[in-house]
Write a structure and sequence with these properties.
By secondary structure, this protein is an alpha/beta fold. 37% of the residues lie in helices and 24% in strands. It is globular.
Length: 350
């Protein structure tokens, strides 16, 4: 009843423009996409999912989830075939698609249900490690798998009632039960957890003075780190190709990781970062600089390895507030040697 009566308000809110956070779900070159209001979105060549959260009139808690995919044929209806639905007291996920043609439904459902339970438990565990008793939020995900050539433009806006974010996302067929799915959902959840309606953890160093765009950049790096921790816990592995972008102009001739000088240039407190695109372009290279410090140039971090322990420690102690990641990256930028460059593999191994 309350949701229904607020429908007109929600439509009015949508017209004001959204303050969005972006997840890139592929490895295509990025291009700029402008939307009404305050936000300027960086769009991947094929797919993006992102969330927004704000307080309308400074009081009413509002959030939204949006999926925008390139493609030929527009999506006319949501996939009706429920592959699986499961979770725990904090995280619930359901995954649907159009009826699978290549695998018997029983096999697909078994695989997906195993993944869903692993993902929900992994995300709950990582949320507890990062925010502990400050975690006051729950997540209810609906995830629709669509064809690779499908065009999608969907947005869901809600007023936050209670503690649960109800989020709707779409994904293309890149692996139904794999770490790319976990990365998308966990990344967007992180943005909500540190946003206007989230856990509100104060920074460890309140005297650190960063510009707005530097703070946005650390938000993006931290979201990638959190999603990597969740995906690693849920699936047992994470590949650096999930974060590699071969078209980062800021890196010059370097492959995958920035030099110490490049890191200092964007991390120096108060340094103006000239372009919103730079914020998004540098987020993954900064995380990969950390990766090479503890995992070298290995393509995969596997569960139970020393690098996995370091990654979980990073999430547990340095991303409850994105600003807390700054001293970790600043230390890497001043360690006296550049991060190793990474080879580029066109096809990730899922």
């Amino acid at each position: 009843m309350a949701r229904h009566s607020g429908a007109g308000l929600i439509l009015a809110i949508g017209a004001l423009g959204l303050a969005g956070c972006i997840t890139q779900n592929n490895h295509h070159p990025l291009s700029s996409l402008s939307t009404p209001g305050r936000v300027r979105i960086v769009q991947a060549g094929a797919t993006i999912n992102f969330v927004s959260a704000w307080r309308f009139l400074g009081v009413i808690p509002v959030y939204s989830s949006r999926s925008v995919f390139d493609g030929g044929k527009k999506l006319r209806r949501d996939p009706p075939f429920l592959l699986g639905s499961n979770g725990n007291d904090i995280v619930h996920l359901s995954i649907s698609m159009f009826t699978p043609k290549h695998l018997p439904p029983a096999i697909v459902k078994s695989e997906v249900n195993d993944f869903i339970l692993n993902f929900a438990n992994a995300m709950k565990m990582q949320m507890d490690r990062v925010w502990g008793e400050r975690n006051k939020r729950k997540f209810d995900f609906k995830y629709y798998m669509v064809g690779n050539k499908t065009q999608v433009a969907r947005n869901k806006t809600h007023i936050l009632f209670g503690k649960t974010f109800h989020l709707l996302f779409y994904g293309k067929h890149v692996g139904i039960a794999s770490w790319p799915t976990a990365l998308t959902l966990a990344h967007e959840s992180y943005h909500l957890m540190v946003g206007a309606l989230g856990a509100h953890v104060p920074p460890q160093n309140p005297d650190l003075r960063l510009t707005r765009r530097q703070s946005e950049m650390l938000d993006e790096v931290s979201a990638r780190a959190f999603s990597a921790c969740v995906a690693l816990q849920a699936t047992g592995r994470i590949e650096y190709m999930a974060f590699y972008d071969k078209d980062v102009n800021m890196l010059g001739d370097r492959h995958g990781t920035p030099s110490d000088a490049q890191m200092r240039r964007v991390l120096m407190p108060g340094r103006k970062i000239p372009d919103r695109d730079t914020v998004d372009f540098m987020a993954s290279p900064l995380l990969l600089a950390w990766w090479t410090e503890y995992a070298g140039t290995d393509k995969v971090i596997g569960l139970g390895t020393p690098a996995a322990a370091k990654l979980f420690d990073l999430c547990a102690h340095h991303i409850a507030n994105p600003q807390d990641l700054w001293p970790v990256l600043w230390k890497l930028a001043n360690d006296g040697h550049d991060a190793p460059e990474l080879p580029f593999y066109k096809t990730p191994v899922f």
